[in-house]
Amino acid sequence: MEMLVRRGFIWQSFEIYGGMAGFIDYAPLGNGLRRKIEDLWREFFVINERSVEIDTPTVGIEDVFIASGHAEGFTDVAIECSSCGRVFRADHYVKEKLNLEVDPTVEAVKNVVQEFNLKCECGGDFKEPEHINLMFETKIGPGRGKKGYLRPETAQGIFIAFKRLSDYFRNKLPFGVAQIGRAYRNEISPRQGVIRLREFNQAELEFFCHPGEKRHPEFDRYADDVVTLVDKFDKEHRVTLREAVEKGIIAHELLAYFVGKTRRFLLAAGIRDEKLRFRQHKDDERAHYAVDCWDAEVLLSYGWIEVVGIADRSDYDLSRHTQFSREDLSVFVPYDEPVKVKRRRVVPNIPKLGPAFRDRAKKIAEELEKLEDAGDEVVLTINGEEIKVPSEYYEIREVEEEVHGERVVPHVIEPSFGLDRITYAVLEHAFDTDTVDGEERRVLRLERRLAPVQVAVLPLLSRDEFVEEAETIAGELRENGIYTELDITGSIGRRYRRYDEIGTPFCITIDHQTFEDGTVTIRDRDSTSQVRVKKSELVRIIQELLNSGKSITEFGEVFRP
Ligand code: GAP
Fold this sequence. Notes:
Number of domains: 3
Bound molecules: glycyl-adenosine-5'-phosphate
Distance between the termini: 32 Å
Structural class: alpha+beta
Number of helices: 19
């Protein structure tokens, strides 16, 4: 963390006013890295998926979060000290002070507090534990305004636009909708640096599927990948994803597909496979909307930390929004072949209905036709009026009908990524030390394409002709979209160390020979070896190096000065 702050990756927000837990600034390098991780995510989960990306407001009206269940159920159990007034998240406090895992329920926390006579850090007694909602409340508009919340997840913006999205996809399941953006949670006691923030960045994919078809046509891409799974009974499995589905460890192919894809994405970002596992939520741990959930957890200096949640949200969200908005959010799914079915139909007797019900007869006939069956009398509500229609006004017929499809409320499989945690994890896994020329060196072995500064151009001397040449070369690299820094201060050794520490994969050095034969050197961050190449070929070579795993040895004879 010291290095990340000093070098300009992450800063404490509101620093000059003393800071506030749970907020961070992305400094220039951290911002560059997070943006590149976002682009990599987009490649995996938008461009190479059956999905599109949208962007919806970060403020939501209250109705949305009543329907979604967050207004009622998005809570943590907290304990408040009756003496100093500090409030702690109960399960974290119990873990920290007693090294015990407590179920996150009021009852379980109460028992632990009593049994172990748990006190506040100030020595005071705790009040009764209680649920605290984690959403930030706000007011929309002037005066009394309308109650709103800052969104605790980007997902709701997708669910409430579902009707439009489904039309966009011509109602053809499955399809995915992604959103990248800020989410807000008024965490009770945010700690652990960037791991638990009050304002953070999510990248979420809501993948809508037929409830009976939780498969993915491209499952084979990942089916033979071997993953580490920890099931809800804490049993560890090292299996292929195909085996995981066949043995019922993972409930269905679609969840397994996203476990596989998530793993490949995290590896591409530089997370180490041996420090990555997928852990299934226990029954009492799942969010209120999930029927199953697998977290991608990464081993960091803080222990195993959840960076992604892959949940089966079933039809929970679409059904709740249907119920609260009264909009039909189902999709018509056509059958391959029409199916013949026998049905009972209620057929209105129009000649009798007309004289008896006059101007209401037409509406009554329409409502009767919608019914599948009827007894001796039907009670209809039309324009708020209750109307009794005796059986003499309709007859029941059995008919054979061709059915062309069915209406279903799609289920949702949701891989939800915390970009801040992933960015931090990438940095921790990339951080390394080695010995170069008898000195310890700190180096960030970031994936080349993710490095915030891709190339540093370093003139050996600060004389005008060296600097001018360096400026020309840096300009050419920048024109070709390569993020380049020019650095003329300090000894060349110190400059190399600076760029090693921020993960710059290549340094270009302009030396005396540049003026003799038009060549420069490229130094590789990881091996610290160099090659000499023609200036005229530099942009092409750097592009190849950045976009592939190629070694500099492919571009010239390697030397170490
Ligand atoms: N839409 C589902 C959802 O929001 P979640 O497991 O609550 O699921 C998804 O959050 C991811 O967001 C987590 O895996 C984590 O990486 C990240 N996340 C959640 N709360 C966070 C916080 N307070 N600070 C930083 N990241 C957080």
